[in-house]
């Protein structure tokens, strides 16, 4: 089952689809095998992603080759690991075994102060199982007043 809906095999030896890279990084981050670099979460592959794949494969008794095929054992194991997560990726989210849980639930809006506004971000989407939202405080948009 292609849980991540990958279009192609992800490996250091293949041309990569940016969507595939984002899905894989999101899944690895959710299972604790990818830490976002200081420069941010990008659709470009990096050594951390491949190291995370190999670590995940090794931990799950798979061949640690750094490759994730659309219908391979690694993508299946990632799907299983995500379904077994105790939380939806963020401590503020309700647990998936909660009967009232909707992974698309939006957490409460924070107070960002007078010079910032709260902006809702879709944090993670993998297949139809793992979605979460986060609020981010961003500079408030100032609308110029034009007087004529």
Write the layout of secondary structure elements.
Blueprint: H1 18-30, H2 47-59, H3 73-83, E1 116-126, E2 130-139
Antiparallel strand pairs: 1-2
Distance between the termini: 63 Å
Order of helices and strands: HHHEE
Unreliable sequence segments: 87-99
Number of strands: 2
Structural class by secondary-structure content: alpha+beta
Beta percentage is 5-15%
Let me know the average pLDDT.
Answer: 74
Give me the side-by-side strand order of the main sheet: 1-2
Number of domains: 2
Shape, per Cα inertia axes? elongated
Question: What would your notes on this structure say?
Answer:
- It contains 3 helices and 2 strands, in the order H-H-H-E-E.
- It is an alpha+beta fold.
- It folds into 2 domains: 84 residues; 57 residues, no CATH class.
- The chain has a two-stranded antiparallel sheet with strand order 1-2.
- About 9% of the residues have low confidence.
Q: Key terms for this structure?
A:
148 residues, alpha+beta, 2 domains, two-stranded antiparallel ribbon, 3 helices
Question: Summed up, what is this model?
Answer:
The protein is an alpha+beta fold and 148 residues long. The chain is 25% helix and 14% strand.
């Amino acid at each position: 089952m292609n849980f991540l809906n990958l279009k192609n095999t992800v490996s250091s030896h293949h041309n990569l689809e940016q969507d595939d890279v984002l899905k894989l990084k999101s899944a690895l981050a959710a299972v604790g095998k990818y830490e976002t670099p200081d420069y941010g979460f990008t659709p470009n592959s990096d050594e951390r992603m491949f190291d995370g794949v190999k670590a995940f494969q090794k931990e799950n008794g798979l061949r640690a080759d750094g490759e994730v095929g659309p219908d391979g054992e690694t993508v299946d194991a990632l799907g299983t690991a995500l379904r077994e997560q105790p939380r939806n990726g963020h401590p503020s989210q309700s647990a998936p075994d909660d009967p009232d849980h909707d992974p698309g639930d939006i957490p409460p809006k924070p107070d960002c102060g007078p010079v910032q506004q709260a902006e809702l971000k879709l944090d993670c989407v993998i297949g139809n199982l793992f979605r979460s939202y986060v609020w981010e405080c961003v500079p408030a948009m100032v609308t110029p007043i034009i007087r004529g």
